[in-house]
Specification:
With 554 residues, the chain is an alpha/beta fold. It folds into four domains: 348 residues, Glycosidases (TIM Barrel); 52 residues, Oligo-1,6-glucosidase, Domain 2 (Oligo-1,6-glucosidase, domain 2), CATH 3.90.400.10; 29 residues, no CATH class; 73 residues, Immunoglobulin-like. Helix content is 29%, strand content 17%. A hairpin with a 2-residue loop joins strand 21 and strand 22. The site of 1-O-alpha-D-glucopyranosyl-D-fructose has 12 residues, from loops.
Length: 554
Amino acid sequence: MTKKWWHDKVAYQIYPKSFYDSNGDGIGDIPGIISKLDYLQELGVDMIWLSPCYSSPLADQGYDISDYYNIDPRFGTMEDMERLIAEAKKRDMYILMDLVVNHCSDEHEWFRKACEDPDGEYGDFFYLREKDGEKLPTNWRSYFGGPVWDDLPGTNRQYLHVFHKKQPDLNWENPKLREEVYKNINWWLEKGLAGFRIDAIINIKKALPFRDYAPDRSDGLCSINTMLKDAEGIGTFLGEMRDRTFSVYDAFSVGEVFNEKPEVIPDFIGDGGYFSTMFDFNEAIFGQSGKGWYDAEPITPEDYKNCCFASQKKVGDIGFLSNIIENHDEPRGVSRYIPEGDCCKESKKMLAALNFMLRGLPFIYQGQELGMENIPFSSIDEVDDISSLDEYQVALDAGLSPEDALKAVARFSRDNARTPMQWSDAAHAGFTTGKPWLRVNPNYLSINAASQLEDPDSVFHFYQKLIRLRKDPVYKETIVYGTLEPAFREQHNLMAYYRRGDKTLLVIGNYQSGKQAVTLPLPYTKVLLNNYADITREGSTILLHGYQVLILEM
Ligand code: TEU
Ligand code: CA
């Protein structure tokens, strides 16, 4: 594997709308991000991925772009964006933007022109089909519920949208569309961006010609994944995009890739692959059900460990995975991966260390470094996210009571991650002086950045230590490039692994509230990190406290 400039970095995801509001309108913005760069530098991160802040009607919170060359006024101006890139550079930090090119917004100029003249140039930027009475062109269900087809306003056509109806899919089969995409990517890279996170990219290749598949729910529709499984040849598009854009600039790219077959991993993230890296979603998708969120199976500590190790094995040294505990589409990791009732400072730190020390590029999602948790929902009216609202309906349709449907949705709602960042114990968690666009988690009085910065034993400082360890010249080579080998696999509720490079490290986490003994095959020479003040030892046996995590040099 060829070494790359970004391998030893630590990345941080910002959801701009909820990060920091600089002007009191209740919406986070780019000047707000700039004012927090010193905070991020203190944490130790180098790469910052911004969820979309382009012009957008915000039907899907910016993942519906109406102008790829502009910043939405709610987030700031292009000058603010340029200033952010420059200010980051001063601190040796890199800015990544979100590349959302499976679809645009129905308010994009291209879509407007397609409506005006569906037979003209821009009609071919989308997937349009003649209307045939009540019959839809295909029976595919969109990710956010309902059919993927809607009427193209003012015409006798329908257009395809695999996400929301305000997110029409772009037709990648059309070379003119692809040229427009590459032009835009290069325009941003010229501005000094380090690269992109690439949204929903696996959707750009459709199975042609379109056809129906067996329905999988009582709505008579089938999951969009059924069609995607049937689509071949995405590599041609991805390879072309890489050659025309990222390769030219040695830019970083991380793909949002789901359900890839193991045999394509070298093409995706091997040397010269389509992307620099891709996210590992193995833990996040565990227990998912085709029926909907209400039917999902909870994840246990054993499942978590097996998911992580399976991904590590699958990728091996072919390339680099990007490891996450959460993102803006997922519930808070500490609420999800720590058994109910056990969410505390120690267990949060354990989860942090176990994930952070995996081989790959660690991504931290805003607030994760504080141990931010899911928000309690008392009514569906408190939910903003379109995906959660759909899943609520799916649960009701399946016969769940409104209370149970709300519970199911609350567990997975994307809003859990989107509540405002908790900066302090001031009003609205110090996120805004106005009225926040989304409810602040009431636990901000006890979980906030200001108090954690003052407390050397905080979750924040634990993340800071993990980051420093990754950058420590003595251990860097091993942590970044060393192999990963699972240890004590048969021991229940224990997740442990060796990282072997020029050093040998053992990461060991007691994934339960009760104590647990582990007998080491050989003595350790040094404790690099411990989330407790002490280690209880008897000869070569360590008696781990509940949720104790250790990083040992062997
Ligand atoms: O998500 C892609 C994706 O696959 C989603 O279906 C995801 O599983 C879902 O949001 C879970 O509820 C990306 C973005 O990360 C997401 O925020 C956008 O809504 C989506 O693309 C459309 O752009
Ligand atoms: Ca603002």
